[in-house]
Amino acid sequence: MRLAEIESIALNIGLTLFAGYVFFIIYDLAKKSNAGKLGTAVLFFALGLGLAAFLAKNVVVEMIGGGI
Q1: Domain that holds residue 17
Q2: How many Å apart are CA 58 and CA 68, to the nearest integer?
Q3: What is the pTM of this model?
Q4: pLDDT for 25-51, tens place per residue?
């Protein structure tokens, strides 16, 4: 396995763990603030949208040219 392949796999695993941690933080924030169902949905939508944009950027970069 080449170093670039290992780095790519590590990046994908790292981003997956990062996304999971962000969703845990949003859930914990909603739970501690007693946000209710609607408030939790708004928190996940608003804060999750930023994470989705970050991840979508990586997908678009890979589709266009395969990196920097």
Answers
A1: 3-64
A2: 11
A3: 0.68
A4: 999 999 999 999 999 999 999 988 988
